[in-house]
Amino acid sequence: MAEPVKLQFIAPKRGMPRKHFADLTHQQRVDALAELGLPKFRVNQIAKHYYGRFEADPSTMTDLPEDKRALVAEKLFPVLMDPIRVKETDDGATSKSLWRLNDGTLLESVLMRYADRTTLCISSQAGCGMNCPFCATGQGGLDRNLSTGEIVEQVRHAAATMEAEGGRLSNIVFMGMGEPLANYKRVLSAVRQITSPAPDGFGISARNVTVSTVGLAPQVRLLADEGIPVTLAVSLHTPDDELRDELVPINNRFSVDDILDAAVYFADKTGRRISIEYALIRDINDHDFRADMLGRKLYEALGHRVHVNLIPLNPTPGSKWDAAPKERQDEFVRRVRAQGVTCTVRDTKGQEIAAACGQLAAEEQ
Fold it and tell me: Which of 69, 125, 139, 145 has the most other CB atoms within 10 Å of its CB?
């Protein structure tokens, strides 16, 4: 009897997708259309559809010549993201989407609807190479950087969703999977497209865009020099190098003082207040002396130009890391404020749908 055939799954090759409209400069778009026999004024027509109407299917762009629409789709609008599933909570106000990219890589984004705004949390990398031990994404490692198109498409999909609901996407936070400043050029290009007015971008105010970092100090200074007044969020998590070397391993290269110096430079250049993200972890970084040290260091460096976002840790399944109890959280806030620094506790939306970055992808895998 013949041996049964053994089927072997071959994982898709990881790599950047085909070039998308959002990946190209204006001149590159002009050149691409010229290859299809279309004049350069068509670039703005297409951009108005993409950024103004959130359309990425040229078959719906009826002002384009009918015999060119399929060619434009093939040349400029490859499908970059396929939805796998959406989880909702908060009576539908919070929805987390899991996407599969062309090479099989998984990607997450979270749409959060509040009374006064709608915020999209987007990913800048598939996975993350920063290796923070309490973070699901960090423990999964880095698959690859996302392309500019893959970043921008997260925004377009959410904007289209909100338009269909009769609302508007107003805020963007780069706090999903990955370290944004480790994918600097593509993230910067995406930020420009998010903040530029139509037909060059979605026209979301730069003041409503937050770029987070675990502490890549040189890139923080580069971002400050770009002249885009986004909000900088520094994921600090502890004010002392001894513990931060463990919680945020990049601290071995860029210390707490290094990142605070860069944050001061950013605040000086942009006039923007710095946001400090602090995941409060039971018996790890929730001590009174660390609250006092945090408030003192931040006030000495930035005065009133800083705000602490205290984040009750959203623990990952099987992890030893857990959220600090409510009374510990309240005392931590009180002590930071006593040093003259504003401190609030972030509204933790979506815990029951695995909304901490990386959790939904980990479940799928």
Answer: 125
Is it true that the peptide bond before 199 is cis, omega within 30 degrees of 0? yes
**Does residue 119 fall inside a structural domain?**
yes
pLDDT in tens, 276-313: 999 999 999 999 999 999 999 999 999 999 999 999 98
C-alpha span between 159 and 151 (Å, rounded): 13
Express each pLDDT in 161-183 by its tens digit: 999 999 999 999 999 999 999 99
Same domain, 47 and 182: no
For residues 237 and 291, state if they share a domain.
Answer: yes
DSSP string, 295-340: HHHHHHHHTTSEEEEEEE--PPTT-S--BPPHHHHHHHHHHHHHTT
Asked, for residue 245, whether it belongs to a domain, the answer is: yes
Same domain (yes/no): 66, 48 = yes
pLDDT tens sequence across 76-98: 999 999 999 999 988 889 999 99
Which are the catalytic amino acids? 108, 357
| Same domain flag for 96 and 154 | yes
Co-location of 54 and 96 in the same domain: no
Residue 241 lies in a domain: yes
Domain that holds residue 42: 21-76
Strand, helix or coil for residue 80: coil
**What's the distance, Cα to Cα, between the start and end of the chain in Å?**
36
Binding-site positions for [4Fe-4S] cluster: 128, 132, 135
CA dihedral 262, 276, 192, 221 (to 10 degrees): 0
Q: Is the predicted pLDDT of residue 158 greater than 60, yes or no?
A: yes
pTM: 0.91
Query: Measured between alpha carbons, how far is 146 from 186 in angstroms, rounded to an integer?
Result: 8
For residue 58, what is the DSSP state?
A: G
Residue positions forming the annotated binding site: 128, 132, 135, 178-179, 212, 235-237, 314
Tens digits of residue pLDDT in 46-62: 999 999 999 999 999 99
